[in-house]
Amino acid sequence: MQRVTIQTVADKAKVSIKTVSRVLNKEGSVRETTRDKVLAIIAELGYEPSPAARALARNSSKIIGLIYDNPSAAYITDVQNGALNACDKNEYSLVIHPCLQEGESLTEDLINLVQRSRLDGLILTPPITDNKLIIQALLDKKIPFACIAPEQTSSNYSSVSCNDSVIGKEITNYLIDSGHEKIGFIIGHADHGAATQRFTGYQEALLAANINISEDFIVQGDFSFESGLKAAERLLNLSDRPTAIFAANDYMAAGTLRAAFSLGIKVPSELAIVGFDDAPVSRQISPSLSTVKQPVSKMAETATNLLIAKIKDPKKSNEHHVFNAELIIREST
Amino acid sequence: MQRVTIQTVADKAKVSIKTVSRVLNKEGSVRETTRDKVLAIIAELGYEPSPAARALARNSSKIIGLIYDNPSAAYITDVQNGALNACDKNEYSLVIHPCLQEGESLTEDLINLVQRSRLDGLILTPPITDNKLIIQALLDKKIPFACIAPEQTSSNYSSVSCNDSVIGKEITNYLIDSGHEKIGFIIGHADHGAATQRFTGYQEALLAANINISEDFIVQGDFSFESGLKAAERLLNLSDRPTAIFAANDYMAAGTLRAAFSLGIKVPSELAIVGFDDAPVSRQISPSLSTVKQPVSKMAETATNLLIAKIKDPKKSNEHHVFNAELIIREST
DNA sequence: CAACATAATGACAGCGCTGTCAAACATTTA
DNA sequence: TAAATGTTTGACAGCGCTGTCATTATGTTG
Predict the structure, then answer these.
(1) Which domains does chain B have, with CATH numbers?
(2) Strands B145-148 and B158-162
(3) Residues of chain B found within 8 Å of residue A95, distances taken between Cβ atoms
(4) Could you tell me the distance in Å between the CA of residue A15 and the C1' of nucleotide C30?
(5) What stretch of H or E contains A296?
(6) Which of A211, B55, B269, B315 is deepest in the core (most CB within 10 A)?
């Protein structure tokens, strides 16, 4: 059995391959009767155009890369699913690229990846979104890209984000409204811009409520469970310990819960805990965690759509979409 | 600036493009001095062969698809990372394909995906590995594939797995050795072959220890936290309730822990809990869960290597690799 | 040193599509 | 009805590689 190519279709439809190509690419300038005839034969033969041949002829692969260096599996799969949605709808393919290495060579590796795989563009996720070297290199090489939740926006590329500082303020206010005044904060990884904004929101809320916080109540973590555990131990061993702790993500909040558990501190009666991200663990622990849910998948989808639009029309101006996050109140507060 | 192609390299090296091609593909029959010269120029120009042109000329995309329909993000990313490792080493690309739909059309969709994207082969993960329709369709269409943890092995395709029944027996024995006789079991999703084997191991251990278990001690779940919660509530409300519960995965074990928590049952003093999979949650809850860790990433890497070997040489016989899982004893027992 | 075997190299077609440009056809206008 | 315009179609080159097969260089033998 011979492979079905554009030629097969053209022969059977008694038109030239160019006409079939026009139909495939919805180019217009094809009489409706002709188009219907071609379409019918394509369906009949189950013809699928060869991506390789198209890529070669067009000099564009219709593949975009998703770059991440993020320890949260749940976050990653959400991002992947959103990006895949957008890709499917636009007939693009997605290639995933975790970069587990922190190395100096990351910039080089990325450029190399794009060149070797002939990617049409990239989606960047935090914390890579905040890597100036990489951003600059991509800009220099004129490789289209879009960012998910970058620390700051830029007119040089499209991006999507949540207003983390607003939400951070909101959840802090919620704690204040519940009667807490001694609210500890566990900061996330320093590279992660959005995490910094969560902290900013926390500070703003306290300021607005005229609450003074000692330096001791603010502890550095790195988003991991263990770092949350350690940070919380420090907070909870203070002579005048906080009655509420806001951790910049759920893993650290889970660590906080465990620290409380070890120290025999009851949650939420003696200590309220809030996390961030609505990671699965926030539902799976007891008491379940109050947290913040971002529409991660939707954000990734939007970023991908923006990227694809930019690839299709490089002159298109860059956009920045802001999404709303949602407070989820559970048992830990 | 003109794009660097094989012609550019050939011209500069004063050889034919065919010779450059030979060097690129390590074909042999190239004098060492010639090869070194070509290699030097490739490096100098930073030449990268066009995947599209190669795919077109070879009629093979060097892309494999990873198919999954699995709710566990941690598992998925482990599998992805393992598969990516193998792909990178062999200069293959990986395209991920979650199939969230349960639909009848899944078989058709998969075949379609392979044809449209011209995938060279597929990696299947549970529970799709046990879908006879899909397996048969792939076999019929002569699409190469390999399975990760299928319910049963077959000489028609390569696969990798852990001996879940052996491990299930082992962990049950561990509970028995700790003095438990009343051991409940929460079964996983019925489609999932490996889960069934975990149950088999449990039964074998009890049989060997001459322990009789009432039907009541065995409850059906579906791998989700909620199903574990419900199942555990049933078990723990029995008049003669179990002193230990073996859940077929960690999410259900986490649900069990929560049920115990709600009912005021102390873990591990009044109830021992073991899970399966070493999901992140097993470390992040208090008390942390005793569980079983499978080398998921390594398994995926091996499966991918087997697939690639098969793609390169279709006459190669199929292999089945068995991996060892590891008991991880934590606080819940 | 001729006659042969073998290793190294190159010329060229072709993979399946898209882009360019010219040709054919249809429609309007004078 | 002829010319002028616009619309639809097709011929053909070329994208950057690999496969086939012919050719040339090198080594080996009697």
Answers:
(1) 6-49 (1.10.260.40), 58-162+296-323 (3.40.50.2300), 164-293 (3.40.50.2300)
(2) parallel
(3) 93-95
(4) 35
(5) helix A296-312
(6) B55
